[in-house]
Design a protein that fits this description.
The chain has 263 residues and is mainly α. The protein contains 13 helices and no strands. The longest helix has 24 residues, at 73-96.
Length: 263
């Protein structure tokens, strides 16, 4: 249980307040956006489109399902964080109602991959999801990290992928840099809230029917995510998510949850 807030929570809270203050007082930086957007344009569009799909909750949860066969806490924490992350994202986007780069800059000044979006820029919802996943893994496994090099590597890898997702939102022309900073901070807080909920009431989360419910939800989201994205440039990520969900379902069917859920 989080009796004392983790240092990262204080950093994320300060970062979110700073990002909101910057956004309100100074507004987004077109120069920083243009520099990052043009720099990223040298990488294949299919790469950035696939990476940015990782910010979809559907894809993210489906890809996390295999982890549940080993350690359940991060996956359960992500599920627990979905209400706070989703509701917070919608409220903040509606409150600020900020224009996206495509609504402000001329077409020849930015490189757009995928749909051209113009509204509700602040904060980045995809980045919120990515950093909620990172927090769920980083904080949900922090007690095992000191004893396992593999856990330490996994935590760093997931955090690095979350940073890539944040960068991808600028690369595809969907968000200003300040949007992803705010999204990263808020997403970390949302993911931490999920971990806290799971650790606060473990008797509720580790009952026998929860893994099957999460698996069913993951399969559903994997299918809907695949239906929405499989024909896009980055459709390879949707295929990967569906494969991860189906593989996990197959292993559960073959092996069952014989040893129960490991925390």
């Amino acid at each position: 249980m989080f009796l004392i807030p983790h240092l990262s929570l204080w950093i994320a809270a300060l970062g979110l307040v700073s990002a909101v203050t910057w956004h309100v007082t100074l507004g987004p930086s077109a120069e920083r956006f243009t520099w990052l957007n043009q720099l990223a344009s040298h990488w294949p569009a299919a790469w950035w489109d696939g990476i940015t799909h990782l910010g979809d909750t559907q894809i993210a949860l489906a890809l996390m399902l295999p982890l549940m066969l080993w350690r359940a806490t991060p996956v359960l924490a992500l599920v627990a964080a979905i209400p706070a992350g989703g509701l917070g994202s919608m409220l903040l986007k509606a409150w600020f109602d900020s224009p996206r780069p495509a609504a402000v800059l001329p077409p020849d000044a930015l490189h757009v991959i995928g749909r051209v979006l113009t509204q509700h820029s602040f904060p980045s919802g995809h980045t919120i999801t990515a950093f909620a996943v990172a927090a769920a893994v980083w904080l949900g496994l922090r007690h095992q990290a000191t004893a396992s090099r593999m856990v330490q590597t996994l935590r760093v890898l997931v955090l690095a992928v979350a940073c890539l997702v944040a960068l991808s939102r600028v690369a595809v022309g969907a968000h200003w840099p300040i949007d992803v900073v705010a999204g990263a901070c808020f997403g970390w807080l949302a993911g931490a809230s999920g971990v806290a909920l799971v650790q606060w009431r473990p008797a509720f989360w580790y009952v026998s029917w929860w893994p099957h419910a999460v698996l069913a939800l993951g399969l559903l989201l994997a299918w809907t995510g695949w239906s929405k994205h499989h024909l896009a440039l980055g459709g390879w990520m949707a295929w990967l998510a569906l494969a991860a969900a189906m593989t996990t379902a197959g292993l559960v069917w073959l092996l069952g949850w014989r040893d129960g859920l490991r925390r």
